[in-house]
Every structure is written in structure tokens, then in C-alpha cells.
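Please predict the structure of the following assembly.
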Amino acid sequence: MIEKVENKRIRLLINIFLAAIFVAVIVLLDTKKIGDDYIRRVLNLTAIYTIVSVSMNLVNGFTGLFSLGQAGFMAIGAYTVALFTVPLQVRPNVFYMVPQNPIIAQIELPFAIALILGGLLAALAAILIGIPVLRLKSDYLAIATLGFSEIIRIVCTNAKSITNGALGIKSIPEMPTMWVFFGVAIISVIIIYLLINSSYGRAFKAIREDEIAAEAMGINLFKHKVMSFAIGAFFAGIGGGLLASLLATVDPRQFYFTVTYNFLLIIVLGGMGSISGTVIASFLVTAGLEVLRFFDEPLTLFGVNIPVFRPGFRMVIFSLLLMVLVLFFRNGLLGQKELSWKVIHNWFNRRGKKKTGKGGVA
Amino acid sequence: MSILKVENVTMQFGGVTAVNNLNIEVEEGRIEALIGPNGAGKTTAFNVITGVYTPTNGSVYFNDEVITGLTPDKITKRGIARTFQNIRLFKNLTVLDNILIANHLRIKSNFMSCTFRMPWSKREEKQMREKSEMLLEKLGLSDLRNEIAHSLPYGEQRKLEIARALATDAKLLLLDEPAAGMNPSETMELSSFIYNIRDEFNLTIFMIEHHMDLVMEISEKIYVLDFGQLIAQGTADEVKNNPRVIEAYLGVDEDA
């Protein structure tokens, strides 16, 4: 018993220590003591991917709705931030082909308000399309949401007086600090974590496990599905808004449906129904794609030019790694579990046991 | 007083009439049963009562209020809970979570106050947990509270499904073949379990069952369904000796 309390205390200390290291690293990066702009950019992108992936996991992994509309909701958030934060005086330069809609052309909002507005508009769109579409199940739902996401992109390409069409919107103010991205990411993950561990989160999981039983237990399927879908869309919209300010530009091509597949990949890899798994996978996928870049450059070994090292080879390696991961971790890295000291402990124990077992046979 | 009244209910699927002009009245506080050969329409009748299907004709009354046309979740809120023929637990969740989910229908806080752990939501959550723990305690499942539902032995899964239905604060419990797949000793245990929960929770129980021993032993009234028609009703003895029931179960001798 005393040992257990001791253990708990040690684990708490380790947790605080790890959190402190994380904060210290971000502070050092942020004050430009270590790293360069490239690393900062990749990490910020990781934070954004974390927000969108966790929100997608809420819908797909926890509520069991196979939705592929994430790119569309991001686009709504990104365009909202872009439209309302570009300074008024540079707008004529941005909208030089078709003048901006006269009403929107007069409104400039602070970043935080535009960001939340983007999230709310994405949630509103989710409710509007969710009402007809959430009556569908599995693959049908996936196709309908995918279609929605394409509609948003095509509207963005063609509503020139609002979105500037295919030219996109440039000169979006950049954020002075990484904490904007990491702060929002941490808050979003905590909120979704708290939601999932509340009574409503349990109702979402019940719908995932067995719709018929959930309804027989008095859970209003439609209301809870729309709720989960809209909350997921809200955070996707926030992620999109952050992306707009990170890249300082938005254009419709950033929101092709292939973008959604990146998030799908992340949640499958991290574990459908695991928040910590999603956070880890967001980092691995986003950073992994960058680390593997050296495969894209020509390589000369002992004076021989290795022929396969050329642009695009990185994706081959990446896909291979994915296949291996999916083959050996069928439920993703964490399945439906959350990362905790207990899980790590059990994992090492099991590996240890396996090894001794093998030794015995030999 | 009858707690459940099924009046002239007909359920057709295309050209097939699964239930034809069914009339049932379940008295409050009793254990009554619906029996019949395979494909007689028993589960369809349950599905009509619980709102899974809207009947082609006729109405269902619960406490003298019409419930036909309501969705299953609304009917459960009124106080009818059910179990399923092939167990439908929330398999990958714990025993306690299964029970807590059945408490969700009475929640008053909205998702925002639940997410941000407002004091009133916290209090509600605490009450929910206490109530669930108490229920598990009463049904002898509290040692299993942190087990994953699908890892339980078959008999315990059946019990958990009944416990989950009770957690919705039901007044009327519909059991769809609770003894399916059980051996004789488990069936015996089940019959005393059903008696106990009826008395403990002031329930009315209406069940579909194939184990005749169980049905004959505990039901106060039995309805017999064949090809969607009600062919007999009454006490165990009355039903047992009814020639139409014997015919439905055993068939008639062509030469006779």
C-alpha cells in the first residue's frame, strides 16, 4: 500500500518533470535560442494537425461516425480567419481581380475572435448538413461528407467576391509566438478529453458500440450524433483558422479531400478511440514526413549514384512504414487505451515475459 | 390496472403479416410471458411495443397513454426497458460504464456544463455513480464493475443486460429470451433472479421465452402466438391443456 502511494508520487513527479521539459523546449524554440524557422514551422503544423485529428477522432473513433468532411470544415475556419484578419488597407491589393464584397471589405476582427467565429461557422455548417446526412450509416455517410467537403472547396473557388477564387487570400497576419498554436492545441485536446470522459462522452461511445442498444437505453441517437459532429467541426474550423495564419495564405487547393486522408491516417495509426494515441501519431506523421525528406535527394554512395533516391521516393518509404505499422499494430498504436504509466509498464512487462518465454523454448 | 395494453396491433412487412390483430394486457406488478413456435412474431411484437417498428394498424398504451409512433429512446424514457434476444451490451466498455450509460437519459446538465465540470454537473455525475454502484451491489455484480463487458461469462452478460435495463428506472421490463443458451441450473438461478428483481424494484415483467419449465414456473399469465395470431391466453395449466397450443407446438396427426 505504501509502495503504491510512493509509486504514485514518483509518477506525478515524472509527469511534472516531462511537462516542464516540454514547456522549456517550446520556450527556447519560441525565443529563437534553439532550432530554426523550419523546425518551428513543422512543430506548429504538428500542433494544428493534433487539433484536427483529435476532433476527427471524436467523430470517427468515439462516436463511430465514418465522416470524411474534415477538410471542408477546416476550409470554413481558414477562410473566416483570412477574410476578417487581413488588414483593411492591404485588401485592395489582395482582391485585385474582383473587388471584395463591400460589406466584408469593411470588417476587420482581432485574430482570437475571427478564430472562434471560424469554429462556430464550421459547427453551424456541420449542424446544417448533419441533419440530413447523419441519417446515413458507415460508407454512405463517408461519401456524403466527402461530397460536402468538395462542395465547400468548389464554392471557395468560385465565390470570387468573397474568397478571391483560385487566387486565394494572401497577407494574413502571422502569429508572433508558437504559444498561439500550442496553447490552442493543448486547450482543445483537454476540452475534448473532458467531454469524452463525461456522461455525454459515454453516450457517444454507446452509439459507437451498438446503436440499437444505445437507442433502447434512451439515448437520442440523432441529437447526440449531431452534437458530436458539430463539436468535431468546431475544432476542425479552429485548426483551419490556425493553418491560415501559419501559412499566411489560404487558397482552395489546400483543402482537397486528400487532406482529410492525412487525418484519417493519423487517427488509424494512433488508435481510433485514443486521444493520446492521436497526439503521438500527429507528431510522428507530420514530423516523419519531414524527416524522411532526405530520401527525395540524390544520394551518392562510394561514388555510385543510388538510382531510387529521387523526389517522391520519400512517400514510398512512408507508405511502406505505414503498412508495417498497420500489419503489426492492427488497432493503431494504442487502440482504445490512453497512454499512461500503467500501459507503458504493462507493455514492457509483456515484452519481458515474451523474451524469457522464447529463451525457455530454445 | 393494466400497465401495458396492446390493442388490435397488426404489423405487415410488404406482403408478410408478422403480427395480426394482437391484443395483450399486462397487469401491473405481474410476470407475464409471450410464447410461440419459431417465427410466430414474438420479437416483432416486442419491437412494436418498444418503438423499433411503428405498427401498420392498432395502438400501444403504456399507463393509459398512447406510445405508438414514439421513437425507442422516448419510450424508454417513459419507463419501458428491454433486453435483446442476442445480447447487445456495449462490449468494449466496462460493466460500470454500461450501467452509467443507461443513466444518461435522465441527465439534466447540458454537454457544456458536463465538459467544463460545473459543480452541479459534478454533483449529478456523483449521484449517477452512486446509484449505479448501488444497483450493481444489489444484483451481485459489483466485483465485476471494472471488467470489460465482453469478457464476462455468458450468464453474467445476461444479468448485466437486465441490470442495464433496470438502470433506466424502468417500470416495465421486457425480456427477450433471457434464458437462451443457459443450462438447467443457470435457468433455475435466473427464475429466482427474475422474482427477486420484480419484488425489489416494483417491476412488471413481460418476457418471451422458450424454456417451458421457466415459463410455466414463473409466469402468472401466458400468451401464445402462432403465425402472428394470438391462439391462447391464460394461466400455465390452461395453456398447457389447450388443444390449439398443442397443435401449434406438436402439429396434428394427418390420419386422425
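Residues 174 and 247 of chain A are 8 Å apart (CA to CA). Chain A has two domains: 1-35, 36-353.
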